[in-house]
Amino acid sequence: MSRVSENSSHQTVGHSLSKTKSKLEDLQLKGSNLKNVQKPSDDPVGSTEVLTLRSRLADSDQYLKSSHVAKTSLEHTENALSDIFDLLMRTKEIAVAQSSSLFTQESRMNIAEEIKQIRSQMLSIANKRLGNRYIFAGHKSLEPAFNKEGKYQGDEGKVQIEVGKDFFVPINLSGKEVFYVKTAQDKKFVPLKDQPLNNFPKPNPDNDRSLAADINELSSSEENGENQEVVKNDYSVFEVLEGLYNALVTDNPKIIQTLLTDIDDFQEHVTRMRTKIGSQTNSIQYSEFNTEKEKVINEGQRSQIEDSDVTELFSSIQKHQAVMDATYKASYGLLNRNLLQFIK
Question: Model pTM?
Answer without folding.
Answer: 0.68
